[in-house]
Every structure is written in C-alpha cells, then in structure tokens.
Amino acid sequence: MNKENILEVKNLRTSFFTHVGEVKAIRGVSFNLKKGEAIGIVGESGSGKSVTSMSIMKLLQHPGKIIGGDILFKEKSIVNTSEKEMQSIRGNEIAMIFQDPMTSLNPVYTIGNQIKEAITRHQNVNREEAKNKAIEMLKIVGIPSPSDRINQYPHEFSGGMRQRAMIAMALSCEPSLLIADEPTTALDVTIQAQILELMKKLKKEINTSIIMITHDLGVVADVCSRIIVMYGGLIMEEGTTEEIFYNPKHPYTMGLLKSIPRLDLGENQRLVPIEGSPPDLLKPPIGCPFAARCPYAMKICEKNQPPYFETDKNHRSMCWLLHEDAPKVEVDTCVKRGKI
To answer: CA–CA separation, 228 vs 212, rounded Å?
Structure first.
C-alpha cells in the first residue's frame, strides 16, 4: 500500500442474496484516497455509490455481503475485521454523514446527548469535557448559540441545522476519513452552499480525507479534486475534477454533464436526459453496462466489457471508443459533444 493513501479499495465485489437471486451491486471497484484529499463518487441511483460506502463502513444489512476484493484503511485490511473492532473504528477513525439527518438522529435524545455519546464512546473524557467538546463542535459547524442549542431536540432544528449537527457528531472524534452520502439532499440551494463551504473549510483546517457521494456532479465540482463516475456497479471513469468536467472520455459521463442545469442555457433550451434505464444487476450485461443506452455503442460494446484506458496519468475510462482501432470520427464527435 502506498503510504500516501489512507484508503485503498481493491477489486471490491458486493452482492445481495435475495429470494429472486444474487444482485451483483458492486462488480470489481478499485480506487484509492490520499490523506487530506476529497474525492467525489457520482452516478445515477442504483449505480453502486452508497453500497460502496456501506461496504467500506461494513454496515451492509442482510442479505448484503462483501464477496471479494479488499479494503485497506491505514495499510490494514478491514474486510475480515470483527464487528467489535469495527465499532472502535466507526465514528472514531471513519465517520459517515447519512443523507437524511432526521432518520439518523434519535428524536427522543437532545442533540448534545447524541454528540456527547459519540465522544465518550471513543475518547477517554468525562461528561463535562464531552459537553464542552460538543459545544465546540456545534460552534465549528456554524450553529448559533451552541451552549443553548445543545439542549434542544432534533425536531427543534431546521433541515440545514440537523445536517450541521450530523457533521458535528461525525467530526467530534476528529476522524481521518469522512464519508458524506448525499449530504445536501433535500436542502435548499442556500443551505447546500453553506454545507459545501463548511466541508471545504473542515478539509482545509482538520486535514480530513473526504469521500462525497452524490448523484449531482455540480455538488462535487467545488469540493473534490478527483471524481469517480459509477454505473452498473462499476467505475466508468475516474479523473481530476477539471478533466471530468472539461475533457470527459466516457459517453455516460458526458450524458451526466449534459443533464446539469446551467445558467448559460437559453430559456428555450432543454436539458438532455439519458434515455433508457440502468441495467438489471440480477443479470448484469456481459459487455459494457452502458451499451444499451449509449448513442455511440458498437458491436464489441455489447459482447465484451472494456478494460480501462488511461488517457492521462490520473485519468482512466472504461470505454471501447478509446481503443486505437475504434472509429476516430466517433471518438472525436463523442468528446466534442461531451465538452461543456
């Protein structure tokens, strides 16, 4: 393992064994995360983003199971780690912000009690020290009058405030890795901007590594230095934020970019949707999972899963259009249309 990396995911495969068969949710995902780096994992619902994060946290519910590959955290494999060991890692070294704070926060306990529980479970402090730390964390995430707010219940907080409280709880033990699963879903755009600005600030000041999971490419543009695009349980493309936005190589990435609302579009210009539906992972396609929806698909796309083609040092794409024998006119047209 590269010592610069805090996390390495190697050929991860995760399935759900249902009464109708095996759903192959993650089909060989590999990526790494450096210390202090923020990466975004994007894709449509059902692409495997959240299952990847739950696999890393080892929070998969029955009938989900990691069936192959490895996950290295701080140079140590955690795939076969016992639940007792994982409990000492979760919330302490790896923390997670879930997409709906109202279902993640306990409605019958005060915000302060919930943050203090996280602190006392993992750190050797007394109740008074835990309370002071909880107040400090609420202050850091921008909640006004934290010494008063600490005694309030989740229903007394707005949506944006609850999300801030969740971030305060997640960061209370100063984790090395923070996983944010759709952290701005259901929040209005003003609060979204505040939450994203807060995460940038925390990354800079605490040097926390961040994995941000979202279906919205616009959300990760300003926070993450690298983007992973997932579809059908696989990574379709990975590159720096600039490369993904201005020089995308995979038709799926291009489709996501063309579906982002933009200020420079005229009032009569419509967003371009990606036609069709995601693949059925009970019976995953043998070729490229995007072939059935891809306007540039060739015969080889349906029969053979493409390898990763590296177009730059930190840019790779799983697409046959990048093969040296692919029709150049298709590649040029594809890339040209994909730019924004």
So the answer is: 10
Query: DSSP letter string over 267-327?
Result: TTPPP----S----TTS--SS-TTGGG-TT--HHHHHS----EEEETTEEE--GGGSTTS-
Tokens encoding 86: 């994982």
For residue 290, report the phi and psi dihedrals to the nearest 5 degrees: -95, -5
What is the distance, to the nearest Å, from the Cα of residue 48 to the centroid of all Cα atoms in its chain?
A: 10
Taking 50 as the threshold, does the pLDDT of residue 46 lie above it? yes
Residue 183 has pLDDT above 90, yes or no: no
> How high is the pLDDT of residue 124?
85
Do the Cβ atoms of 203 and 176 come closer than 8 Å? no
Query: Which pLDDT band holds residue 265 (cuts at 50, 70, 90)?
Result: low
What whole-number distance in Å separates Cα of residue 68 and Cα of residue 54?
15
DSSP category for residue 58: T
Q: Provide the whole-model pTM.
A: 0.89
Computed over every residue of the chain, the mean pLDDT equals 88
Phi, psi (deg, nearest 5) at residue 130? -65, -40
> Cα separations (Å) of 152 from 156, 161, 307?
6, 12, 53
Three-state SS at 99: coil
Q: How far apart are CA 119 and CA 176, in angstroms?
A: 15
> From start to end of the chain, where are the E strands?
5-18, 21-34, 38-42, 64-73, 76-77, 94-97, 177-181, 209-214, 226-231, 234-240, 309-312, 315-317
Tell me the per-residue pLDDT of 297-333, one tens digit each, with 9 for 90 and over: 999 999 999 999 998 888 999 999 998 876 653 443 3
The helix or strand, by DSSP H or E, that contains position 51, with its residue range, turns out to be: helix 49-57
Measured at the CA of 197, the angle between CA 191 and CA 198, to 5 degrees, comes to 90
Say whether 191 sits in a helix, a strand or coil.
helix
Q: CA–CA separation, 204 vs 219, rounded Å? A: 18
Q: Which candidate, 169, 335, 316, 164, places its Cα nearest to that of 247? A: 335
